[in-house]
Structures are given as C-alpha cells and as structure tokens.
Amino acid sequence: MSEKIYAWLLRLYPSPFRKAYGEEALQLFRDRSRDERGFFLSLRLWLDLLTDLAISVPRAYRSVQPAPIDASAQQRWDGTPSFHVLEGEAPRPGALLFGGVLALAAVATFAISLGHGGNYPRASVAHSQPPAEVQPPASSPSAAQAAGDAEEETIASGPPAMARLRPGGTELVPGASGLPQTPAQQPRPQDATSAIIPALVADVKLDAAERQRVIDGAIANLKRYYVYPEVGQKMADVLLAHEKSGDDDAMTDGGAFADLLTRQMTDVGHDRQLMVVYHRVETPARPPGPTPETVARYRKALEQNNCFFEKAEILPHNIGYLKLNSFPDPSLCQPMAAAAMASLNHADAIIFDLRDNTGGYPSMVALIAGYLFAQPTHLNDMYNRGENSTLQSWTPQPVLGNRLANKAAYVLTSGTTFSGAEEFSYDLKMLKRATIVGEATSGRGHIPRGRRIDDHFEIRVPDQRSINPISKTDWDGPGVAPDVKVKAADALQTAQKLAENKLH
Fold it and tell me: Is 105 exposed, middle or buried (0-12, 13-18, 19+ CB in 10 A)?
C-alpha cells in the first residue's frame, strides 16, 4: 500500500522526469522500505520523501522545456474518444499547492493510523504478513522445491491478456492459454464473526521465556539448515551472545523483536533473504504440500496470463523476440513454450526479454535453454543443505527440427530479474552462449524456506543454493553482471543493434 501511495505521489513530477527516473525512485523506495521497518524508521522515511518532494518538484518543472505536441485527434476503432495529454507544460501554482497539501494529508493520515492503537486494543494483523501467494503444485522434485520455498515468486494476476502464438508474430486474444480448464470457483462467503475476531485480539507482550524459545528456535534452524554451515554457526553464536549480554531483554513487542534478531543475523551473514518474521495472528502449521486451493490458484494464474509468455514475434532483420515474465511449470505449460519457440524457429538471432521475470521452475529454465544447444548440456547444480543432496540440471534432448542452436542469443535483464530468471542468464553467460544486456539482476541465488518456530514466529532460512559447474559458485549478492551494461529501458534497442551488427 505504501509503495502505491509513493507511486501516486511521483505523478506530481513532470512526465519526462518520471520516464527518466521513476523506476529508480521506486526501487530506492522499495529498498528503504525493506531495510527501515518499524514505526519511527517508517516515519523518518516518509519525512525524507516529502522533504525531497517539496524541494525537487518545483526544480523539476523549472528544468522542463515545453515542446509542441501534435494534438490531431484520431478515431479509435471501437468509436470511443481518444485523449491527448500535453507533456512538458508547467503546472499552475494552485495545482502545486493542492499536491503539497494532499501529500501532507496522506502522511498525517499514515502517522495517525499507525498510532491509533493507543486507546484501543491493537489490531491483530501480521507484522510481516506475506501477500496472497500463488504457489505451484509439488508434483515433482523441482515442483516440491518451488512449493516449499517461503519466498517463492508471487504471481501477479493482472489483466488477462492472452496470446495465441503463431509463426511470425503474436495475436492478442482473450483466453488462449491452452491449459485444461478448471471449473470456476465461487468465492466462499466469509463469516462476519470470524472476520472481526482477529481485530479484537490484543497483542501479547513477550516475556523472557517466549524470547528464549524464539532464539533457541532460530539457532537450531540456522545450525541445521543454513546453506553455508560455517556462516550459520557464526550467526547462531552471535544470537546467543546478544541474548547472554541482555541485548534482547527490553523487547516486549513481537515485531520489533523479530526485526532485532534479523539485524543481528544479517550483520554477520549479509544475507538479504534470511529473516525472522512475526505474525500477530496465530498461524497454524503449514501443510506439507500445496493445498487444492493453492493448486487451483496457480492454474488460474497460468490461464489468465498465458503461462506468462507475454509476447513472441519477429522483429526487423529477422530477429526473434520472446518476452517471458516467469518460468512456469512445464507439466502445464510445455505446449505454450513449444508454440512460442516454434514461432521463432526461423529467426537469425533471438532475444529473451527477462526484465520483468520473477523466476519459477528450474525444469522450465532447462527446457527453454535447451533450444540454444545441439546436445544435452549441464546448466546448474542445486545443493540442498537440509537433505545434504545435489540435484543436477541439464537441458533435454534437442527438439526435432530446431534451428536456433547455432544462432546468436541475447538476454535482457534488469534489477528486478529474479531467481530462476537469474539462473537462465547466469547459465548462458557461463557457457558463453548468450550476451547479457541491461542491468545487474537482483542477486537472489539462494532459496529460502519458512520454518515455523511457534504460533507467532517463523524464520526464513535459505537452505538451497545454485552451484554453477563452470564457476563453482552462483550469483547470490551482486547478481548477474551484464556483458553490455545499459539502462533496462534501453536494453531491447541495444540488443537489436548488437544483433543487426552481427548479422551484417
């Protein structure tokens, strides 16, 4: 919600400024929101942002040079009117005043809402309640791995823009995912009593026994599961040292205590995916596998989003282009993957656009990568600390008639290229099979799993990591560095020029 408010406030800036710096501003806000949790840190963050808005908005408008815009109206095919926005026009003083007042009102409302619990029992909502996630079914080793991942990628269900893939381009049509249809589920009515009871449950103050139980649980999980045993032991020792020195004794709020333990661990391990999470509402133990409802949501998301194959088309100079926003379960989406790649089979070069890809199934990563090789190729190894096992990932046997194995390949990346999409990029880079164009990726090479400590606390411990057969390491931390570093917004145009130069 806070990110949406900030994104709305960015509209106070002129359009050229938003296009140039909007994504960077949002990414900075996400980073600070992740690191500055709690009431006072959140308040400081918003005061900083509003101060910056007050100073930089007028400056941004003063630097804009108005440009004439052709406002010739064109009739849309459906008969609805079209609108033209004049960009570069400085706002009137009244508009700036209104925007400033509205921003101050938003912050005041935010602060009042946070402190509203002074006279009433505080609402029992999760301190770090995860969003409703769409988890893939665990019907295979890789699926079980993805389903158990506590930080597995949330699948956005956005507008259902389907694509019927065909050789030579993409035809956008409503509903053409090719998945077996499942009966539509009617939303279950929520019992009004059950909806309001959590809000009436007052927070429980932590005592010494509860703090000790959480610390003991965190230490046990670090020692048993953390992907680097020696680092896990160091973090466990640090937690114990803080506990013995009394650094935790003043903590009675669950959320603040979880934040403190997270900082104590990450100061040593520097792992952004390791955290202690507090839920104000009592959370039952998770089922061992995905529930039927979870599977149904995942299938629905695939149907609505065309298995996340957004676009497949042939660009000028016979350059193939595939926009893929996830690596979905191949047991459900292999036909769509085959159709997408078949439509690009006669291209002289191919561009994979992973700038918005949030990862997914390693088996789909191997399936798509396989089109770039003439024989099965070793891509990656996945080490599981809890099971003390290593699972190799290879491309499958070549597809009959595939013509892309010897064609130039380019992969577009951004700071939000995540997890499995990073593996795809890193694997091809290490094999020198593709040129990476864009920005360094997010740097999430480990797979965390949520492990329950008690009814209110859990610890998310990375217990699996990638080991590339060539580099003997992974991309966790710095991310996958591009071969050609440009802004994400310029990556496609840059890759097209690289491909054209190579072809001619």
Answer: exposed
Helix axes 15-35, 2-9, angle to 10 degrees: 150
Question: 107, 145, 75, 77: which is closest to 9 by C-alpha?
Answer: 107
Specify the 3-state DSSP secondary structure of 121.
coil
pLDDT above 90: residue 26: no
Asked if residues 209 and 428 have their Cβ atoms less than 8 Å apart, the reply is: no
Give the three-class secondary structure for 409. strand
Specify burial of residue 486 (Cβ count, 10 A radius: 0-12, 13-18, 19+): middle
Residue with tokens 């159709």: 339
Which residues lie below 8 Å from residue 433, measured CB to CB, with a gap of 6+?
Answer: 372, 373, 409
> Residue 43's pLDDT is what?
79
Structure confidence by residue, pLDDT tens digits, 204-245: 789 999 999 999 999 999 999 999 999 999 999 999 999 999
* Predicted confidence (pLDDT) per residue in 373-407, tens digit: 999 999 999 999 999 999 999 999 999 999 999 99
The span from the first CA to the last CA of the chain, in angstroms, equals 49
Contact 281, 198 (CB under 8 A): yes
Radius of gyration of the chain (CA): 25
The tokens describing 392, both together, are: 């190799």
